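Pasting as-is:
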Amino acid sequence: MDFTAEDKAAIKFLQVNQHYGDKRLWKEFPTKNWSLRGLNKLLKNRRDTERLKGAGRLRPVRCIDRIKLE
């Protein structure tokens, strides 16, 4: 099932702000003809690709103590 950009934006808003899950979205919008599996995959993909705080490469800090050691 292909979701339009507007559908994805609405799904993201409802998921983040209202804590909607795949089943609740599926029941709230019966006229959209979304499949439950399609919603599940979309939400799972969004969870997996979301950047976690503290994730990534550590960067060196330039503070006075380190500058004096050089």
